[in-house]
Amino acid sequence: xxxxxxxxxxxxxxxxxxxxxxxxxxxxxxxxxxxxxxxxxxxxxxxxxxxxxxxxxxxxxxxxxxxxxxxxxxxxxxxxxxxxxxxxxxxxxxxxxxxxxxxxxxxxxxxxxxxxxxxxxxxxxxxxxxxxxxxxxxxxxxxxxxxxxxxxxxxxxxxxxxxxxxxxxxxxxxxxxxxxxxxxxxxxxxxxxxxxxxxxxxxxxxxxxxxxxxxxxxxxxxxxxxxxxxxxxxxxxxxxxxxxxxxxxxxxxxxxxxxx
Length: 260
Ligand SMILES: NC(=O)c1ccc[n+]([C@@H]2O[C@H](COP(=O)([O-])OP(=O)(O)OC[C@H]3O[C@@H](n4cnc5c(N)ncnc54)[C@H](O)[C@@H]3O)[C@@H](O)[C@H]2O)c1
Fold this sequence. Notes:
Layout: E1 7-11, H1 16-27, E2 31-36, H2 41-49, E3 54-58, H3 64-78, E4 83-86, H4 102-123, E5 132-136, H5 149-168, E6 175-181, E7 184-185, H6 190-198, E8 215-216, H7 217-228, E9 239-242
Parallel strand pairs: 1-2, 1-4, 2-3, 4-5, 5-6, 6-9, 7-8
Helix pairs in contact: 1-7, 3-4, 4-5
The chain binds nicotinamide-adenine-dinucleotide.
The site of nicotinamide-adenine-dinucleotide has 28 residues, from helix 1 and helix 4.
């Protein structure tokens, strides 16, 4: 799974899954541009501290100007672009009802769905045969119950985006795939973890999946690194679910201890 000589652009790389992905790609030899709305310099410093090559850019990657700027910087810094991990995202309100305002819904679609599309479109002229695009979807894009309604809809869109983009890039040798994480401890899910710890209920986190634990950002990053590498050379238009088996199981009420 070597990525020596490759150049990767990772959005949402100031922390969480994006930082873990940037580090995993760097560990395999890729030079990395870490992009985020927030200052990504800590991620850059971690990669450089590990002996890797990295630059950072703070921008809104879900605008046409931001997408163009980040691609231009990757090429200016490292001379080429081979890997795009479109990972930046926002969760939005968790309310399962129908009260979300249209502007709020549109903002979630802008960041989570139009953002990856803009990144792919800006990167395309620089990508050649062997290049790889990976988007971060979510189990929330597969079914209800893992996020708010706009978030789920946006992530379902990301899953379709990788399918349709893989078809649109037919004949180019560029692969397009997604990872769909389950519950992962990151800044996005920090309130849930903090609340559970405060109530002494940390042990209940992740109990709905067969591995009976929450996931780590590094466990998602390993799937990203695989999809970005030549080891996945015949994997295209797919979604790799990294959720401990959550989406493989229907809801199940275990028998109470002692029978019944
Ligand atoms: N943590 C989970 O349980 C989980 C599960 C499934 C999917 N995901 C997805 O994984 C991705 C990464 O999330 P995370 O969990 O690491 O949380 P996170 O909040 O740490 O990471 C998201 C990053 O994206 C950045 N970002 C948001 N909007 C941006 C914009 N317009 N331009 C540039 N950067 C922007 C944020 O500043 C943040 O650093 C997201 O797409 C999220 O939806 C997370």
